Amino acid sequence: MIQLADARRIIAAAEKKAAEIGQPMNIAVADAGGNLVAHVRMDNAWIGSIDISIKKAWTSRAFDITTKDLAANSQSGDQFFGIHASNDGKVMIFAGGIPLKKDGKVVGGIGVSGGSGEQDHAVAEAGTAAF
User: Fold this and answer.
1) Contacts of 21 (CB under 8 A, 6+ apart)
2) Does the global pTM surpass 0.85?
3) Count of other CB atoms within 10 angstroms of residue 105
4) What is the pLDDT of residues 75-114, one digit of tens each?
5) Phi, psi of 106 (to 5 degrees)
6) Gene3D superfamilies annotated for this entry (predicted)?
7) What residue ranges do the domains of the chain occupy?
8) Which CATH number does the domain 4-130 belong to among 3.30.310.50, 3.30.450.150, 1.10.1740.10, 3.100.10.10?
């Protein structure tokens, strides 16, 4: 189970990485049920990315896959094509969402938005490593 203390540690590590690369981010952490545990909008991060970061955390938990991998498999002709239209449009197919695992079991997700897909994913990876 993801506790608030876990979410704070994950977010702190992600914020550190975002600061290192010079890109303010929105960072969200969801629990095993996909429910938001904590969210941070760094100074000057895009307000439009608040919703995206929360939905990336939810998506990575809902499907137990990185949003980067989900995106790669949701292009026209691929196995998950059209998945972004499911769940009332809540599914995000941009890089930056990663499932959080404990003892090999998915127990939550992190979602990061505010930069390029590569930047979002790198910041999410930093947060995941802190878990």
Assistant:
1) 115, 119, 122, 123
2) yes
3) 10
4) 999 999 999 999 999 999 999 999 999 999 999 999 999 9
5) -75, 125
6) Haem-degrading domain
7) 4-130
8) 3.30.450.150
Instruction: Extract the tokens encoding 71.
Output: 């995106």
Is-contact 76 66, C-beta < 8 A? no
Cα–Cα distance between 81 and 104 in angstroms, integer? 28
Six-digit token string for 67: 């949003």
List of long-range contacts for 9-14, beta carbons under 8 Å, 24+ apart: 9/130, 9/131, 10/100, 10/110, 10/127, 10/128, 10/130, 10/131, 11/38, 11/40, 11/127, 12/130, 13/126, 13/127, 13/129, 13/130, 14/110, 14/112, 14/123, 14/124, 14/126, 14/127, 14/130
